[in-house]
Amino acid sequence: MCSSDLRGCENMAALLRAAGNGMARRARDTASSFAVASQQRGLAKKSSGDDAMTIDVPVPFKAHNIEAPSQSVETSKSEIVNMFTQAYLMRRLEIASDVLYKGKFIRGFCHLYDGQEAVCVGMEAALTKQDAIVTSYRDHCTHLGRGGTPLEVMAELMGRVDGASKGMGGSMHMYKRDAHFFGGNGIVGAQTPIGAGLAFSYKYNKQPNVAVAMYGDGAANQGQLFEALNIAALWDLPLIYVCENNHYGMGTTTARSAKSPEYYKRGDYVPGLRVDGMDALAVKQAIKFAKEHCVSGAGPIVLEMDTYRYHGHSMSDPGSTYRTRDEITGIRQERDPVERLRKLIQTHELLAPEEVKAIEKAQRKIVDDAVAAGKASPEPDADALFRNMNQVTDGIVIRGVDSSVRTPLASIQGP
């Protein structure tokens, strides 16, 4: 085992390399997280029962207008193993999506989530399926977290009937009503007022639940966010706004897009927390704290998740023109959320190495099977165009390219 001095030197060297690549600001912001593995070592305490344990997360929460939650997180062996399993599945699914897109099985928009998995798995550990979630177009893993299947995601990405939206939504429109997942939204920031509406329904119906509206740092400057936040605060709605700050809105760094990049403080009169969004246990603790705050009647709260995406903004963006490959590699080596969960398992001897490998093998097979089943799933039939629409077509016409041409809808709809 390395000495603490040696680990400190290694961490300092990592910071100096980051600064040499023009990353001094980000290196300073995340310096404490670079020592995650060594700081977590020895910080777990057994609680009641052999399975329960308490782990201190290494990066402190930053609070605005509220007292920060404890850094000691109550967890268990089974929870950590489940988090790792889910995060690894999400990672493999997004890697498979990349391959399918490049093979032209997936067309159109496609925004991948690899690097941000800790937000989903940590969030789900603190919520129930009776709580509502609405998110942006980077929604594949959110669907999995809500209990959706890899087949539903893969088939939807390929436009097949077994998809989450029956093959008619695509990458940006996953949806799972029975788990209160109100989908991805293709319009930047459009989900934020929807989240306020969901929170209003909980308060109106006197339900002890919260709505979570997720958005990125790129959407944080949208006016509709502040309008919705204002009414949520005015009416004390049980609403958690989660800003997934991956440091780039499309290809624009936060330093060039935000005069105040401390997004957790953007609510002004609304409390906020800044969270290490690459640490699933820290996310769990923050969401648990936020839910308790909201259901107590105290109103909304803003959480900023400090996270990172490995792919570009979408598959059309190589992600390397506005940042260096060294930057991406540095984050992978020091803060990767899947590897941090793996290190927790190793450090606290929760599983044998061969058991971890068995989990990885099983998740890879699940994704491979989902890809095969998605490819085999048929495309929606033509009649699907008219489902969930007004079926009374008498007198309804469609205007053609030539505005003088009118085609009766009934003549083309068929029986």
Topology:
Layout lengths: L3 H17 L3 H6 L6 H5 L4 E2 L5 E5 L5 E3 L7 E5 H26 L14 H10 L5 E3 L5 H6 L4 H8 L33 H14 L6 E6 L6 H12 L4 E7 L2 E2 L2 E2 H4 L14 E5 L3 H19 L2 E6 L18 H11 L1 H11 L5 H24 L20 E3 L6 E3 H5 L2
Parallel strand pairs: 5-6, 6-7, 7-11, 10-11
Antiparallel strand pairs: 1-2, 2-4, 3-10, 8-9, 12-13
Helix pairs in contact: 4-5, 4-13, 4-14, 5-11, 7-14, 8-9
Q: Which key terms come to mind for this protein?
A:
415 residues, alpha/beta, 6-stranded mixed sheet, 3-stranded antiparallel sheet, 43% helix, globular, disordered N terminus
Your description of this structure?
By secondary structure, this protein is an alpha/beta fold. The chain has 15 helices and 13 strands. α9 links the parallel β6 and β7. The chain is globular, with a radius of gyration of 23 Å.
Task: Provide a compact summary of the structure.
With 415 residues, this protein is of the alpha/beta class.
- What spatial form do the alpha-carbon principal axes imply? globular
End-to-end separation in angstroms reads 74 Å
Question: What portion of residues belong to β-strands?
Answer: 5-15%
| Discrete helix count | 15
What's the main sheet like? 6 strands, mixed
- Uncertain segments are 1-43
Number of strands: 13
Radius of gyration (Å):
23 Å
Which structural class is indicated by helix and strand composition?
alpha/beta
**Would you list the SSEs in sequence order as H and E?**
HHHEEEEHHEHHHEHEEEHEHEHHHEEH
Quaternary structure state of the chains depicted: single chain
What strand line-up does the widest sheet have?
Answer: 3-10-11-7-6-5
What is the average of the pLDDT values? Answer: 89
* Helicity range: 40-55%
